Amino acid sequence: MNVLNEWAFIGLFFLLAPLLPALPIVLGGVFAPHKPNAIKTATYECGVETVGDTWVQFKVQYYIYGLIFLVFDVEMVFLFPWALAYKQLDFFAFGAGLLFIFLLTDALFYAWGKNALAWE
User: Fold this and answer.
1) 111 touches 117 (CB < 8 A)
2) Is the model's pLDDT at 1 over the cut of 60?
3) What is the dihedral of CA 11, 15, 20, 26, to 10 degrees?
4) 43 plus 77 within the same structural domain
5) Of 12-21, 22-31, 56-65, 79-88, which gets the smallest average pLDDT?
6) Has residue 71 been placed in a domain?
7) Cβ–Cβ < 8 Å for 46, 105
8) How far apart are CA 90 and CA 101, in angstroms?
9) Are residues 66 and 108 in the same domain?
10) What is the largest CA-CA distance in the chain?
11) What secondary structure, in 3-state letters, does 6-48 show?
12) Does residue 21 lie within any of the structural domains?
């Protein structure tokens, strides 16, 4: 009976979890004032009005740089606690950290080999 109660909480969580982000969005859509005008619907970029066509294609290179930065930024989030607990780690945790570092290093060399890091 106790196991059933634990699963009931998990089921309740899965039922309520989508409501938590959806509720503020729906409430904002219902109660927010809607007064569109030409100035509010105009394309606006970094405090400067756009000149010419606003649908400009950017190089994929910028996207790849952003992804590589994100990968190594997330790497630091995972490696920082691993480094702080280094002396308390058992062999498995140490090996998992080294495997993680190896895979990210491999990804860096792959991107480097594909010239994804060359700024042209």
Assistant:
1) yes
2) no
3) 180
4) no
5) 56-65
6) yes
7) no
8) 17
9) yes
10) 68
11) HHHHHHHHHHHCCHHHHHHHHHHHHHCCCCCCHHHHCCEECCE
12) yes
Q: Does residue 102 sit within a domain?
A: yes
Report the amino acid identity of residue 17: A
Expressed as residue numbers, the domain containing 76 is 60-113
Confidence band for 57, pLDDT divided at 50, 70 and 90? confident
Q: Which two tokens stand for residue 104?
A: 């990210």
Amino acid making up residue 48: V
> Identity (one letter) of the amino acid at 33?
P
Residues 66 and 104 in one domain: yes
Shortest CA distance to 107 belongs to which of 74, 72, 81, 73?
72
Q: Say how many domains are in the chain.
A: 2
pTM, two decimals, is 0.47
- Which is more confidently placed, 101 or 4? 101
Query: Within this chain, do residues 33 and 69 fall inside the same structural domain, yes or no?
Result: no
